[in-house]
Amino acid sequence: MLNGPFSPWPSFTEEEAEAVSRVLLSNKVNYWTGQEGREFEREFAAFAGTDYAVAVGNGTLALDLALKGLGIGAGDEVLLAWIGVRYVVDYDDAIFHNYDLSSNAWVRRFLGRKIDTVMRHAACVIAGNDYLADRAKAAGAKRIVVIPTVVDLRRYSAGNGAGATITIGWIGSPTTQKYVEQLLPALKALSQAHAFRLMLVGATEDTATRLPGIEVIVCPWSEDTEAALIREMDIGIMPLEDGPWEKGKCGYKLIQYMASSVPVVASPVGVNPDIVNGAGCGLLAANDSEWAIALLKLLNSGEIRDKFGASGRVAVENQYSIDSQLRRLESCLLVQERQ
To answer: Where are the domains of the chain?
Structure first.
C-alpha cells in the first residue's frame, strides 16, 4: 500500500456482496446461530500458522485484546528501547506539556521529561510542526521529520455556495470551544454590520447560551457527518490562545476547511500562519478588532471567499493530503526497518 495511492475505500467485490447477502437471507446473523464467524477464524488461524484466531469488529478491539493478552493495562508503559525494539513516534500535539507544565509538582518533577526520553530513543520522530520538531531536537532525537497533518481528500468536497444567510463554521470539541466563546465581542460587533449564523460542530449544547445575541447552531460531531457539516460552512474559523499548548497544534481544522474549499480566518498562533499564508486560503486575526474586520471582509465578498477557498483546496491536494505525504511517511518507516 505504501508504494502508491490508497485504493478507494470501502471497496467490495460482487463475490463479497453475495456472501454477505447469503448470510443475511439465512437469518443466521449471530455468532452463536451461524457458522461463518467460526469458519473464518479457523481459516485465518491456518493462514497465519497459529492454533487459534479470534474475529473482532475492528482494529481497535484487536489492539485492546492484544494488550489484555499481554497483561498491559491502563497506566502501564512499555519500555521498547530497553528490550531492543526500534520504534517510530508521531506527534501532532504538544502532549509533553501534560507533564512539564502540569499543575502537580510531583508530575513535573518525575515525569516532566518523559516524552523527551521517548523521543530520544526513537528511531525517528515524526512531528506535525516546527514547534514539536524543536522539542524533539532539544530532546536529542536521532532523526526528525516534519510531516504536516493530512486529510483523505476523497472525504471532502466543496459545498453548494452561500445560502440566504452566510454560515460561519467551527469544528472542535468541548475542550476547545472556549476559544470560540472568547470571540463573543468580535461576533457581536460583526452582527451589527452583517447577518450571519454560527455553526458549532462538536461543542456542548450550552455553548449557545454563552454567545448571547448570536444565531448559533450546535451540531454533534461524528466522523460520519463531519465532512457534510463542513460543506455547509461558508467561512471556517480557528481561534486560539497564544500559549505553549496551542503552539503545538497542527491546524487540522484549517486543513479540513480547506479540503472543502472553505475560506478560513485563524489566530496567528503556532502553525496557523504557515498554513494560511502559504496556501493563500484566508486571513489571520490576532484580536477582536482584527477578527471582526477579517470576517466582515469575507462576509461582504463571495468572490474573495471563492478565491481563498479554491487556493485552500489546491494546497491540500499538493501538501496536506495523504497522497502528497505518503512517500515521506514511507521513508520514515523504511529507515526504521533498515536499522
So the answer is: 29-76, 81-150+322-338, 153-318
Q: What is the pLDDT of residues 130-177, one digit of tens each?
A: 999 999 999 999 999 999 999 999 999 987 666 778 999 999 999 999
- pLDDT given at position 1: 37
Comparing 231 with 74, which gets the higher pLDDT? 231
pTM score of the predicted model: 0.76
β 264-266/235-238 pair status: parallel
What are residue 219's DSSP bridge partners?
A: 201
Evaluate whether the domain defined by 81-150+322-338 bears CATH number 3.80.10: no
Q: What is the pLDDT of residue 65?
A: 83
pLDDT tens-place string over residues 38-50:
888 899 889 888 8
